[in-house]
Amino acid sequence: MQRKYLYATTAIVVIVIAALAAYWAWQMQPTTKTLDFWAPFSGEQATTDFWGNVSEAYKNQTGNTIRISMYSGDEFFTKLTTALGSGSPPDLFVTYGGGELDTYVNESAVADISNLYTESWAQSQIGAGVKDAITRNGKQYALPYELQTDWLFINRKVFENANVTIPTMDTGWTWDQFIAASNKIKAAGIAPVAMSGADSWSLSFPACYIHERANGANAFKDALTRTTNFTDSYTKAYSQLKQWVDGDYFQTGWATTHFYDAYQYFQAGNAAMFIQGTWAVGMVSNNANMTLDVVQWPYLPDQPTANKVIFGSSTNIAVAAASTHKNEAEEFLRFISKPEWQVKYAKDTTGPLAQTVTLPSGTYPSTMNTVLTAITNTPTLILRYGTMAPKDLGATIDEQNLLVFTGQKSPADAAAAIEAKAVQVLGPVH
Amino acid sequence: MSLEYSPWNWFRDRFTRVVGLLVLILWSITAVYPLLWATFTSLKTREELFANTWGLPSNPQWSNYVYAWGTGNMGAAFVNSIIVTSLSIVLLFVISPMAAYALARAEYRGKGTILYILLAGMYIAPQVSIVPLAILLQSLGLMDSAIGLVMVYVASGLPYSIFISRLGFLSIPSSLEDAAKVDGLSTFQTYRKVALPLALPSVFIAMILEAIFIWNDFLYPLVFITSPDKNTLPLGLFRFQGSYLIQYGPLAAGIMISTVPLLILYILFSERIKKGIAAGIGVKT
Amino acid sequence: MVKLRIKTGSKRIIARYLLLLPTLLLYFLFFMYPVINGLSLGLYKYSGVSQVKYFIGLRNYADIAIDPQFHNALKNTFIITVVNSIVQFVAGFSLAWLARKYVRVGSIFLSVALIPIVLSFVSVGLMWTWFYNSSFGLLNGIFDFLHVNNALNFVGLPSIPRSLTANPSTALFSVLLTANWHGIGLYAVIYSAGLRSISPSIYDSMKVDGLSDLQKIRRVIFPMLKDTIALALVLVIAASFKIFELVYVLTGGGPGRLTDVISLYLYRYYASFQAGYASAVAFYMLIIGLVLVVIQFKFLRTEK
After folding, report:
1. How would DSSP label each residue in A11-57?
2. C222 shares contact with chain B (CB less than 8 Å)
3. Burial, A423: exposed, middle or buried (Cβ in 10 Å; 0-12, 13-18, 19+)?
4. Is A176 in contact with A290 (CB distance < 8 Å)?
5. Nearest to C54 by CA among B215, A107, A323, A95
6. Fewest CB atoms less than 10 Å from the CB: which of A111, A159, A407, C289?
7. What residue ranges do the domains of chain C occupy?
8. Which of C162, C257, C274 lies nearest to residue A253, judging by beta carbons?
9. B128 and C279: CB-CB below 8 Å?
10. What ipTM does the predicted assembly reach?
11. Separation between Cα atoms, residue C257 and residue C72, nearest integer Å
């Protein structure tokens, strides 16, 4: 009896191990090279389709497979951090540059791909601005793909129905005009701005503009290099922000609304304005309730209207230093930079390209053309502050934005918290 | 009957009866409705969902399920979840009652310490060990594999399983164990023939609860599985969310796909479960 | 006869250790070792994206201890744990009692009570986001249908805010409501089983005494079900302490940080290249967990 049981136990254990081993072996079958590419993109169909198409074409040409995985925000960084930290990173992954890239470069997590930049296509397609964004110590560490900028999108129909004058891109509007317009829209029963407090990154767009309007284009950078402090500039910025928030111009429940719900609110014509990056152009469709347009962020009274600044960042693709398929990864980067794929990307996703490629007319919807013209006419493109700063400082700034927006912290306290973190991460002002 | 049974008492009893029944019925409805709602949502188009949010679907969109299963990769995720969950439970079933038995009645050196350390594990959040676990799995070559996940789940499920199973073993009258000893059974035989069958309902409960947890867990697969085709169901659900567009129909279909197997298990074993809970809660009279 | 002698004593002890062996092996290798290793990372400034780390001693621990956001998360976690324990005990027990008293409806109840627990936290969070929606949410619909706000205003109370999750005064409540909706069923079933295991003679004898239900419960039933209650409490406390996905999906810790909990706090730091700091937070969690275990042993006596 005892022996039978012994056999039974052994049998169970053996079967379990065999099952696991078989499954493991099945998954481990070596084939042609497979590369992993992780992106913090959405599940937006056009984007998913594009990357599916390009990876398939790549496979047809080279026989290598690119597996693309998309995760959102925190999940992306949790996964990427763990993968990098344990030495099993994806071969390719997206980085927005700035402080994030600094960390990657300083800790040798990304590969040096300067050799790509010596090639002729790169020299003609990759402009100085986006190249600088991914250059460290004279070497290049990622390939710029998309250039996102942040805008104040409006629904013309709502403005017109409420009898509010829409400012042109050239003249812009003052802060007072902006508030007056918001009041008029509010009186008409529509929420002036669709906000998504549950996705705190979206709060940084208005926060950046308000900071710049209140302090000028160099204030943040000076504080970052520790020439000045953050307390003064952010107290000013947050006070202005608080004034705006206290006016109650956001939709009901905005504080725990996610980005996609805010977008839908805007799309349905229930909000007049939507502060987002250029991806909004591809998301929002014109219909009976919506005509999409874009306007400048308002200017504060004591600011010269000629001061034009846009916030944004480039979406770049880096190669992991620990990747065992660096050559194939670089090949993929070359592949997706081909003009035909660049054009297809622009057409399918309406994403603005970071690289310079001639696009046939009609590639972009009119709103995007307005944006692109404005970008060309604007002298200064600033990296979003959260991206510019080291990631840990950026997280603190993000959090202070959120707390001021929801009224849980006073402007002065929030500014002080940012300065305190800056001292910890970057050292004191000198 | 008591002489004090006045009309007031009658009214009070009737009142409490109505309230009591009402509470039970209302609770039952609230327990069931969300799942029903998920079913309805999974069969609606996006437009209908916004137009008729809470009612029955007018035109069942089974295509949502097809989409979720195929394009949404829920089919593969389903298989992966089954593999990981069942293998973890099998292992847990073999080793945790053994440990629970060993930690039940007998006293010996180190028993208390081992018990403390094991139970403390119940309060440790998974995020604590993510980085070192990732490094460990990577060095063992178990990253991005079902085996790796299974090892992690078994190890972290041990505190819980042992805690619950142990109660079952504790409720066995010691006279039975003594009798076994007198009969000359070894510890292992006592365990297998006497103790385990009696404690089985408790063990069973522990396994069911662990299975639910493992099946629904999100964090470990997120960080330890890097190939998209090895995703488990909770990760698969994520695909429909994205930051931009929530595909509500397929998402709800995904939720149903994730939930139905557990529901089936539950329906099949509900009697056993209730018996198990009853047996595990040995009442000391 | 000789065989009998040998099977006592040390051989039994060895047998017990053998029974524990696979458990201890797996537990230490895949649980304790990484946990301890992870905790040691709290002594470093560590981004998590490589092996590069800078030793900074107890600085992380000090920063956490004085961080008001940490206190906030701790407070919320504590509130959630305490409220969940009380509610799931009171409601779970009451429902179990009712189910026993009104057997026919009760059996229907018991068969559906476990349905919520089968749903994953992510699914529950997603569904309840819809229920709480300010424009077309089910709850608001029900409130409107029952003219709840009219009734409240009539007696001088303020209306219920349209968005329960976004309103600062009701945000935590919405998390508690959803979490308890999810968990109560399990405890109702556990207590119900406990009640069933009490022999009918006890119930009969109580009837004769003429005591009210509440008194019956307090004086007779509770002492008999001490172990059941202890078990349920341990389960609730352990689960509430670690609560994560539900809050994440439902409120994201918001509005602002009003419903922030410890595991969310940790998660954010981990995802912003501050893995060293996150590990230090985990250490604090472990300490609190150990305290809870000690409490569990001392007061709930679950080791006996």
Report:
1. HHHHHHHHHHHHHHHHHT---S-EEEEEE-----HHHHHHHHHHHHH
2. no
3. middle
4. no
5. A107
6. A407
7. 67-303
8. C162
9. yes
10. 0.84
11. 8
**A100 contacts on C by Cβ (under 8 Å):** 273
Q: Which domains does chain A have, with CATH numbers?
A: 34-148+313-362 (3.40.190.10), 150-311+383-426 (3.40.190.10)
Compute the distance between CA of residue A368 and CA of residue A350 in angstroms, rounded to an integer: 8
pLDDT tens, N- to C-terminus, chain C (304 residues):
444 444 456 777 788 888 888 899 999 999 988 888 878 888 999 998 888 889 999 999 999 999 999 999 999 999 999 999 999 999 998 898 888 888 888 888 888 888 898 888 888 888 888 888 877 788 888 888 888 888 888 887 777 787 888 888 889 999 999 999 999 988 888 888 888 777 777 777 777 666 666 776 677 778 778 877 888 888 888 888 888 988 988 888 878 899 999 999 999 998 899 989 998 998 898 888 888 878 877 776 654 4
Query: Do the chains contact at A85 and C50, CB–CB below 8 Å?
Result: yes
- List residues bridging with A273 in a β-sheet: A154, A193
| B24/C106 Cβ within 8 A | yes
Please give the mean pLDDT across all residues of chain A: 89
Neighbouring residues of B206: CB distance < 8 A, sequence distance ≥ 6? B92, B96, B160, B161, B163, B164, B165
Answer whether B59 touches C (CB < 8 Å): no
Question: By the 8 A CB rule, do A400 and A420 touch?
Answer: no
Per-residue pLDDT of chain A (430 residues; tens, 9 = 90+): 567 777 777 778 787 887 777 777 666 655 578 899 999 876 577 888 899 899 999 999 988 999 888 887 778 898 899 899 888 899 999 999 999 999 999 999 999 999 999 999 999 999 888 899 999 999 999 999 999 999 999 999 999 999 999 998 878 888 999 999 999 999 999 999 999 988 888 999 999 999 998 898 889 999 999 999 999 999 999 999 999 999 999 998 898 888 888 998 999 999 999 999 888 888 888 888 899 999 988 988 776 555 578 899 899 999 999 999 999 999 999 999 999 999 999 998 888 999 998 888 888 888 888 888 888 877 788 899 999 999 999 999 999 999 999 999 999 999 999 999 999 999 999 8
Read off the pTM.
Answer: 0.87
- Write out the H or E segment, with its range, that includes residue A70: strand A65-70
> Which residue from A82, A85, A256 is facing C166, i.e. has the nearest CB?
A256
* Adjacent-strand bridge partners of A39: A70
- Residues on chain C touching B28 (C-beta within 8 angstroms): 108-109, 112-113
Size of chain C, expressed as the number of residues it contains? 304
Using alpha carbons only, what angle is made at residue B48 by residues B46 and B51, rounded to the nearest 5 degrees? 115
DSSP code per residue over A216-233: -SSHHHHHHTTSS-HHHH
Q: CA separation (Å) from B41 to B60, B105, C138? A: 9, 51, 14
Q: Which fold has domain B73-284?
A: MetI-like fold (1.10.3720)
Return d(Cα A21, Cα C165) in angstroms, integer. Answer: 47
Q: Which amino acid is at A69?
A: S
Burial letters B256-281, b for 16+ CB under 10 A, else e? bbbbebbeebbeeeeeebbbbbbbbb
Hey, is the C-beta of C34 within 8 angstroms of any chain A C-beta? Answer: no
Mutual angle of helices B130-140 and C33-40, in 10-degree steps:
120
3-class SS letters over C214-257:
HHHHHHHHHHHCHHHHHHHHHHHHHHHHCCCHHHHHHCCCCCCC
Residue ranges of domains in chain B:
73-284
Q: Which CATH architecture has domain C67-303?
A: Orthogonal Bundle (1.10)
Q: Which of A72, A78, A90 sits opposite B242 (nearest CB)?
A: A72
* SS3 category, B73: coil
Do C257 and A402 meet the contact criterion of CB atoms below 8 Å apart? yes
Cα-Cα-Cα-Cα dihedral sign, residues B266, B269, B271, B275: negative
